Amino acid sequence: MLIKIILTGVLAVVLVGIYWLASNLFFLETAQYEVSMKEGDFEVRDYSELAVVTASMQSPEGDSAFRRLFQFIQGENARQEKISMTTPVFVEDGKMSFVVPDETLRKGVPDPTGEDVVLEDRAAIRVAVHRFSGHANETSRREALAALKNWMAEKGLESEGEAFFAYYDAPFVPGPFRRNEVMLRLGPDS
Q1: Are both 137 and 160 inside the same structural domain?
Q2: Total structural domains within the chain
Q3: Residue 7 located in a structural domain
Q4: Is residue 11 part of a domain?
Q5: Within 10 A of 83 (CB to CB), how many other CB atoms are there?
Q6: Residue 139: its H or E element
Q7: CATH number of the domain residue 88 falls in
Q8: CA 40 from centroid of its chain's CA atoms
Q9: Which residues is 35 bridged to in the sheet?
Q10: Could you list the pLDDT tens digit for every one of the 190 residues in the chain?
Q11: Does 38 lie in the same domain as 60?
């Protein structure tokens, strides 16, 4: 009888865990885009203007940008309102950005109250993208960027500016299942 109670409890915990993962990781709102070219793990995308909340990754206090942005969506804002997590997390020019969800845009985005957390509008952009898996590190990012540049050269696509990255998964998602992307803005002739 005791074993049956323990197994029932373990099963309940596992089911709650699966429900939490499914509702918090797999059904996150994702920034919308249109694909104009696709070839394997490479794409050309058009993003509309996006509202983002951004923090510098070089904080004088040593706080992580992710932590400060997470605190913003957990209620560290003018209305002490929780905001849904979205994907991807963009990293560009020493800054990290979370996309503001549509529901929050409709209601009005509360002002950040945290140090070095700001609301910004990202202009509409056309980008070349290479999707890669694994835990993103200096080597994997460098290799992904080289692959993207090679593909762009084959397609006659010209880039503008520096590469930036998009991350879609929580840190505990196993490497082979992770979705990472490197992006380059396309020039006007691409």
Answers
A1: yes
A2: 2
A3: no
A4: no
A5: 20
A6: helix 138-155
A7: 3.20.80.10
A8: 21
A9: 45
A10: 767 666 565 555 554 444 445 444 557 899 999 999 999 999 999 999 999 999 999 866 656 999 999 999 999 999 999 999 999 999 999 999 999 999 999 999 999 998 899 999 999 999 999 999 999 999 999 999 999 999 999 999 999 999 999 999 987 888 889 999 999 999 877 7
A11: no
d(CA 101, CA 95): 19
Query: pTM for the full model?
Result: 0.83
**Tokens linked to 174:** 């196993």
Residues constituting the chain: 190
- CB within 8 A of 36, min separation 6: which ones? 44, 45, 46, 126
Domain range for residue 129?
32-46+124-186
DSSP per-residue codes, 56-87: ESS-TT---HHHHHHHHHTT-BTT------EE
